[in-house]
Amino acid sequence: TRSTRPQRLLNAVRKHATRGDPQSVISAIDHFCRHSEWAMNIGDEKGSILDSVVSELNPEKVLELGTYCGYSTVRIARLLPPGARLITLEFNADYAAIARQVIAWAGLEDRVQLVEGASEDWIPRMKEHFGIETFDFVFLDHWKDRYLPDTKLMEDCGLLRKGTVLLADNVICPGVPDYLQYVRNSLSYKSCYFKSHLEYTKAEDGLEKSVFLG
Ligand SMILES: O=c1[nH]cnc2c(O)c(F)c(-c3ccc(F)cc3)c(-c3ccc(F)cc3)c12
Ligand SMILES: [Mg+2]
C-alpha cells in the first residue's frame, strides 16, 4: 500500500537526522517540506518565534494542542529543562504513531507525553489524570474551530493561571477570527500578533501570543 506523507516525513528524519539530536530532526523535516513535500509543520520561520517565546518563558508545564508529526513538539521540548513536562494531544492516530517515532528519534521522549484523543475530552482530565495544577505555556495548533472552545474550557477547568501564555498558530491562514476577537477584546488577556508567513511559503500567516491575566 502507498505510504502516507507523515510516513515519508519520518523516513526523511531517519535518513538524514542523527538520533538524539533534536536540531538535526528539525532541519531534516524543514528540508523535506521545502524540497520534497509541503506539510503543515509550523516551520522554521514561525518556529523561531515559537523558540523565542518558549526560551523567554522557561515553562515547567506545557500543553500542546495538535501534535501532527511532532515537529513543534521537538522544537519546544528541546528548549525545556529535563524536569519540565510537555503534554501533547493528537486526535489522529496515524499522526500520533509517526509523532511518537519522531520524538523518540530526537531523544526527547522523557520530557514528552503524547496523548491520543480529542482535546475537549482530555482538557477536563488534566488535573486528575496527569496531576497538572496549571499550565505555564499552551501552544494551540490543532483545528481552527477548536481554538476558542478549548481556551474557554481551559479557563473553566482552572488550568490557566496569572501569566499563563497561550501561543496560537495559523491565526491568519487559515485564520481563527472568533478566537482572535476573544483574546484581543477580553479583559482577561493581553494579546499581541507576530506577523510571519505560512510555513514554507510566501503567504502571510502569524502567531498570536496571549497572556492570561487571571
Ligand atoms: O489544520 C491545521 N492544524 C494545524 N496547523 C495547520 C497549519 O499550520 C496549516 F498551515 C494548515 C493549512 C493552511 C493552509 C493550507 F492551504 C493548507 C493547510 C492547516 C490546515 C488548515 C485547513 C485544513 F483544511 C487543513 C489543514 C493546519
Ligand atoms: Mg499550524
Characterise this structure:
Helix content is 44%, strand content 23%. It is an alpha/beta fold. It has a 7-stranded mixed beta sheet with strand order 3-2-1-4-5-7-6, sandwiched between helices. The model has no long low-confidence stretch (mean pLDDT 98). The protein binds the ligand O=c1[nH]cnc2c(O)c(F)c(-c3ccc(F)cc3)c(-c3ccc(F)cc3)c12 and magnesium ion. Magnesium ion binds next to loops.
Distance between the termini: 51 Å
Shape: globular
Ligand inventory: the ligand O=c1[nH]cnc2c(O)c(F)c(-c3ccc(F)cc3)c(-c3ccc(F)cc3)c12, magnesium ion
What's the β-strand tally?
Answer: 7
If you average the pLDDT, what whole number results?
Answer: 98
Task: Determine the structural class based on helices, strands and strand pairing.
Answer: alpha/beta
Q: What pattern of helices and strands is seen along the backbone?
A: HHHEHEHEHHEHEHHEE
Query: Which percent range describes the beta-strand content?
Result: 15-25%
What share of the residues lie within helices? Answer: 40-55%
Biggest sheet descriptor? 7 strands, mixed
Q: Which strand order does the major sheet show?
A: 3-2-1-4-5-7-6
- Rg: 16 Å
What is the chains' assembly state? single chain
Low-confidence stretches: none
Number of helices: 10
